[in-house]
Write a structure and sequence with these properties.
Blueprint (H helix, E strand, L loop, with lengths): L1 H6 L21 E9 L2 E7 L7 E3 L8 H18 L12 E9 L18 E8 L4 H11 L5 E7 L14 E3 L7 E3 L9 E5 L2 E5 L9 H13 L7 E5 L5 H6 L5 E5 L3 H13 L5 E4 L3 H6 L15 E4 L8 H10 L3 E6 L2 H11 L4 E9 L9 E8 L1
Parallel strand pairs: 5-6, 11-12, 11-14, 12-13, 14-15
Antiparallel strand pairs: 1-2, 1-4, 2-3, 4-5, 7-8, 9-10, 15-17, 16-17
Helix pairs in contact: 2-3
């Protein structure tokens, strides 16, 4: 981290020691391909040496035990239903891969009449299928219907593509009082799942972003909330996802805005806030660069005040230039930048620290033990 900040960003920064947690059994989500081992279908992972190959894995020590158990149950049920026709082999078959995620539920909170999604812990699987054949899709769902505490979703994954992917525009929708159909993913409240990170619970859909390490996510969010901020008026959480941190910021600021491009995430963030009687956040479903580009020193063209705090948690590629330019123009008192890509972080910090901001704290978090990846929190203050 120190090397990236120095070499890429030209910054000399004191990096604090790594914050870490349990090194094994931490992942709440894994994406599997399929592999043949002694003639039997197994879950596998892509081989480093060959893009097309998969390596069967007998177990996975970084997956949460309940995730691996659920994954094995899912595969056994599908193999029992489809037999040798299950695995797509480049010419025939049905399943290209699957993503499995486990949710903690909300078991410690009382059930309310408005809770249509189950409060109990559950697993979610998205199947990447090589065909939009409806009878095959319904067979797959039926095969998994008896698996306890499992929610099943299917997404078409074009078999001509080298990589397994999940097409949100060719998603099997099974909605109440409607015939199943393939189209844009529509995740109703009943189909979402409750997930709890520390004291913060939220509704999550099958394709929404969620940190894969619950223990470390709680430490990361708690660190943000413990920082010394100059003001308590208006805070912005950009790239907010389903709004876990956004709602927590509302305990410290008079006004909070969550910005997220993904409309499904914003919809569930609003639903979560309503169900928890916590409607203190303004949710904006637009690209962050569009919102920031429209800003001016008088406040977003709508009379909103100048933000005291801006939290950034962008994708791996970092922030768009419009976001960084606006921050340099508006100069909020505090900026918190959370990044999973040290080089992209260093590049963006170089722009922010050229004239207007200074780094007061840099703290890496080991959200991905047994890998080279690291999550980093940087706290900046306006000069």
């Amino acid at each position: 981290m120190r090397d990236n900040l120095s070499r890429v960003g030209g910054l000399k920064v004191d990096v604090k020691p790594l914050v870490h947690g349990h090194p094994w059994g931490y992942r709440n989500k894994m994406s599997f391909s399929l592999a043949l081992e002694q003639g039997e279908v197994r879950w596998g992972l892509r081989a480093l040496e060959e893009n097309e190959a998969s390596v069967a894995i007998p177990s996975c020590d970084i997956a949460r035990p309940e995730l691996w158990k659920s994954a094995q149950t899912i595969l056994n049920a599908l193999v029992e239903e489809f037999g040798s026709d299950l695995m797509w082999d480049g010419e025939k078959g049905y399943l290209r891969g699957a993503t499995v995620r486990v949710h903690t539920g909300r078991p410690n909170l009382p059930h309310q009449e408005m809770d249509r999604a189950s409060l109990d812990p559950c697993s979610v699987v998205i199947l990447a299928v090589a065909s939009q054949d409806m009878p095959l899709a319904l067979r797959a769902k039926a095969a998994l219907a008896s698996v306890p505490d499992l929610k099943t979703f299917l997404s078409y994954s074009d078999p001509r593509a080298t990589n397994v992917y999940y097409d949100r525009t060719r998603f099997l929708n099974c909605l109440p009082n409607r015939e199943p159909f393939w189209g844009e993913a529509v995740i109703s409240e009943e189909l979402s799942s409750w997930h709890t990170t520390g004291p913060w619970a939220t509704l999550v859909g099958p394709m929404n972003f969620l940190q894969v390490n619950d223990e470390m996510a709680e430490k990361l969010y708690s660190k943000v909330l413990s920082l010394d901020f100059e003001g308590n008026g208006f805070a912005i959480d950009a790239f907010c996802g389903v709004g876990i941190l956004t709602r927590a910021l509302a305990d410290r600021f008079e006004q909070v805005m969550g910005i997220e491009l993904d409309t499904q995430s914003i919809k569930l963030a609003r639903n979560t806030a309503r169900r928890l009687n916590d409607c203190r956040v303004e949710w904006v479903s637009e690209p962050a660069e569009v919102v920031f580009r429209a800003w001016n020193k008088g406040g977003h063209g709508t009379g909103r005040p100048k933000p005291d705090l801006v939290v950034l948690d962008p994708p791996r590629k970092g922030c768009q230039k419009e976001v960084l330019q606006t921050l340099n123009e508006v100069k909020p008192k505090d900026v918190v930048y959370i990044s999973c890509h040290p080089a992209a972080l260093a590049r963006d910090l170089k722009i922010l620290c050229k004239k207007n901001f200074e780094i007061v704290e840099t703290q890496p978090f080991d959200l991905f033990p047994q890998t080279h990846h690291v999550e980093t929190l940087v706290h900046l203050k306006a000069k």
